[in-house]
C-alpha cells in the first residue's frame, strides 16, 4: 500500500495510485522478499551443508572457507570470519526486534490506547527477549521448535482468514498476475542508474539487501541443518522458489485486501496513512471480528519476533561454540540478552531518528559480511571442483 499510494515513495518514480503503481507495488514487494533475498540465504546454506555433510567439517561459518584457507580456518582467520558472522547476525536480529517493537507498540496504541513511545517500544523488546530467554533455556525441541510450529500455524490461520474475509476473487486472481508482473519488472527494479529513483532505492532496496545479508548466517545455518541428503539441484530449487511462492501468496493476499479498501474508500485506509506500522490493523478493522483478529495479529507478530530471537540465539551460540550443539544453557541465554540490549540501544540512542538508527545498524554490519559472501561463493565452487575432478585431494581431505 505504501508503494501504491506514494506515501513513502513509489518504485521507479511512477505516478502514485496509477495502474503502473498498482503493478509495481506488488512487483517491488516480491522483489524485496523473493528470489534476490533468498539467493543470499542459499549461498550460506548450501556452502554450510556442503562442507558439513560432504567434508565432515563443523557446522560453523569458518568451515565454508576450507578450500581457500585450509587448516588456517582454525586460526585467527577463522576467528575473524565467525566474529563478523556473529556481529552481522546480532545486528540483523536487533533490527528485526526494533522494527517489530515499533509495530507491536503501534498495535497496543491502536487497540488499548497505550502511548506509542520509546519506553513502550523498549518494554516490548524486553518482553520479547524474556520469552525468548525462556525458549532458548528449554532448548531446541522443547522451546524453539514448539514456538516456531505454533507461529506457522497462526500465520496460516490469519492468511486464510484474510483471503476468505477480504475480496477473495480479486486476491486469488492476483496470484498469477503478480507473479508474471514480478518477472516482467525484476530487471527494471534491479537497475539503480536512474537519478530519480536513488532516494527510493536507498530507503527501501539497499536497506532490504543489507537486512537479508545480515540474516544470512542465521537462516543459512537453519537451512543447512534440514538439507542433509539433498542434491544441490534440489536444494536450490526449494530454497529459491518455495519461499517465492509463499511470499507471493502472503503479500498478494494482504496487499490486495489493503489496496481494495483504499480504492473503495473503506475505513481508515481511505485516508492518508502516516504510520505504516498501523496499516495491518486498519485493514483488519474492516473485516469480520476486527478486535479479535487485531489481537490475534498482534500476538502472532510478537511470537514471530520471539521465534526470531530464540532461533538466532541458538545459531550464534553454535557459531561461537565451533559448531557444537551441546553447550551450557546460560550461554544461549546470554546471547538472547545481548540481542535485546542492542535493539534497545539502537531505539533509545536513535531518539526521534530511531528507525534510521535501526536501519544503519543492519547496514553497517552487512557491509563487511558482503566480502565473506563473495569469498564463500568462490570457496564453494572450488570445493565442488575438488570433489568432482580431484579425487586424490578429496581423499587427502577425508583423511585429515
Structural commentary:
This protein is an all-alpha fold. The chain is 78% helix and 0% strand. It has helices spanning 2-5, 19-33, 35-54, 66-69, 76-112, 118-138, 140-165, 168-189, 198-225, 232-264, 279-284, 290-320, 329-350, 354-389, 391-398. α5 (76-112) crosses α6, α5 (76-112) runs antiparallel to α12 and α9 crosses α12.
Let me know the largest β-sheet: none
What are the secondary-structure elements, in order, as H or E?
HHHHHHHHHHHHHHH
- Mean pLDDT equals 88
The number of helices is 15
Helix content: over 70%
Beta-strand level of the residues, as a percent range?
under 5%
Q: Whole-Å distance between the termini? A: 56 Å
Low-confidence stretches: none
Task: Tell the overall outline.
Answer: globular
Care to count the β-strands? 0
Instruction: Please state the CA-atom Rg, rounded to the nearest Å.
Output: 22 Å
Secondary-structure class: mainly alpha
Short synopsis of the structure:
The chain has 400 residues and is an all-alpha fold. Helix content is 78%, strand content 0%.
Offer a few descriptive terms:
400 residues; 78% helix; 0% strand
Helix-strand layout with pairing:
Blueprint: H1 2-5, H2 19-33, H3 35-54, H4 66-69, H5 76-112, H6 118-138, H7 140-165, H8 168-189, H9 198-225, H10 232-264, H11 279-284, H12 290-320, H13 329-350, H14 354-389, H15 391-398
